[in-house]
Design goal:
Oligomer: single chain
Number of strands: 5
Helix content: 40-55%
Shape: globular
Largest sheet: 3 strands, antiparallel
Distance between the termini: 28 Å
Order of helices and strands: EEEHEEHHHHHHHH
InterPro entries: Transposase-related, Transposase_IS66_central
Number of helices: 9
Strand content: 5-15%
Number of domains: 2
Structural class: mainly alpha
Strand order of the largest sheet: 1-2-3
Protein name: Transposase
């Protein structure tokens, strides 16, 4: 998600990306957006950050890049609790990342049974620091505990992604657009912007020229014809 201005109101530019489709929507940071886009019957694997609204989706992955940044920040603290917990959590994540990358070189395998005891020890560490007097240490320990199964779900299938970097990279172009335009002026402008961004990035994912497709759309509508379908994936 990217913070967005719709006139004087704060909104968010959401991005949902898959192998052949990228979809944007501008709205509030709320459960309603997820329900609108994914509905009640979404059966795929959802990669997300730690936003609580995602927790209703059981088959979900957590972005480890976000967690690693937090553990690295705690590691650099001069206080005992954050430094100790940050060092331990960072070591656990980096070790498991190495294991996951190595597992991708061979046939698919479930790593959870192999690392059950290893994870149990780290869970005890999180329990120890969940009531730390240091705010960020306490918050991260509780974040691990509250989203435990989701964070380590990737171990059951190491071919799944470890980060939501693809979604974050998709937003980079629109960060520049936001700076140039200062957002949108009303709901209609937000709707049009999100549609255009979705069309442009979906065409690019499908190795199709978005400008050629948009020209075809304009030509068809001027002639009173239906909007042509998006190009198929190459």
């Amino acid at each position: 998600m990217l913070s967005w201005k719709e006139w004087a109101e704060k909104r968010w530019l959401w991005v949902f990306t898959s192998l052949k489709v990228t979809f944007y929507i501008i709205g509030l940071r709320s459960q309603k957006v997820l329900d609108y886009v994914l509905g009640q019957t979404f059966k795929g694997v959802l990669m997300s950050d730690g936003y609580k609204a995602y927790r209703k989706f059981l088959n979900r992955l957590r972005c480890w890049a976000h967690l690693l940044r937090k553990t690295k920040g705690l590691k650099q603290s001069l206080s005992d609790d954050p430094r100790t917990f940050g060092t331990e959590a960072h070591a656990v994540l980096t070790e498991l990342m190495d294991v996951i990358y190595k597992a991708r070189e061979g046939p698919p395998s479930d790593l959870l049974p192999i690392y059950r005891e290893f994870l149990a020890e780290f869970k005890q560490c999180c329990m120890k620091y969940r009531d730390s007097t240091h705010k960020k240490t306490r918050e991260l320990a509780r974040e691990f505990l509250n989203d435990w199964d989701t964070i380590f779900h990737v171990l059951s299938n190491p071919t799944w992604p470890l980060t939501n970097n693809e979604a974050e990279q998709a937003l980079r172009h629109w960060v520049i657009a936001r700076k140039l335009s200062h957002g949108t002026r009303n709901g209609q402008g937000s709707h049009v912007f999100a549609i255009l961004a979705s069309v442009i990035d979906t065409c690019r994912k499908r190795n199709a020229c978005p400008w050629k497709y948009l020209a075809e759309v304009i030509t068809a509508r001027r002639q009173g014809l239906d909007v042509p379908p998006l190009p198929l994936a190459a």
